[in-house]
Amino acid sequence: MKSLRTPVQGYFLDLLLAARRKAQLTQQQLADQLGKPQSFVAKYEGGERRLDVIEFLRLSEALQADPARIMRQLVKFNATHATAGRITRGAGKRGAKGSQKK
After folding, report:
1. 77 and 11 in contact (C-beta within 8 Å)?
2. pLDDT at 75 over 50
3. What does DSSP assign to residue 74?
């Protein structure tokens, strides 16, 4: 199975795991709050699947964690770690105009 982990992705997962532990929730308890199976939590924590932005926001809410704070930490990490999987400024701008509805 192909790993979804880059250093930035790994750090993101570490932040989410730390938030779950701070909330004192098991994977099962968190999954129950999300209306998902326990394997959903296990797979994203293990790097087998990625979260989309809506899942991330629902997860943050369930963990009573500030999603903006998590993102700030992730951006700071990315800025200080040059990696193959690095997120770069402007990477998402290509095609953005064509995707806007009028």
Report:
1. yes
2. yes
3. H
Q: What is the C-alpha separation between 24 and 51, in angstroms, rounded?
A: 21
Token representation of residue 62: 């369930």
At 85, the amino acid letter reads G
Pair of tokens at residue 72: 């700030």
3-state class of 22 per DSSP?
Answer: helix
Q: State residue 26 phi and psi, 5-degree precision.
A: -80, 165
Q: What residue spans of the chain are helical by DSSP H? A: 7-22, 27-34, 38-45, 53-63, 67-80, 96-99
Check residue 6 and give its pLDDT: 85
Q: Would you say 20 and 29 are in contact if contact means Cβ atoms under 8 Å apart? A: no
Structure-token pair, residue 28 = 């099962």
Q: For the chain, give the mean pLDDT.
A: 83
Higher-scoring residue by pLDDT: 56, 100: 56
pLDDT for position 39: 98
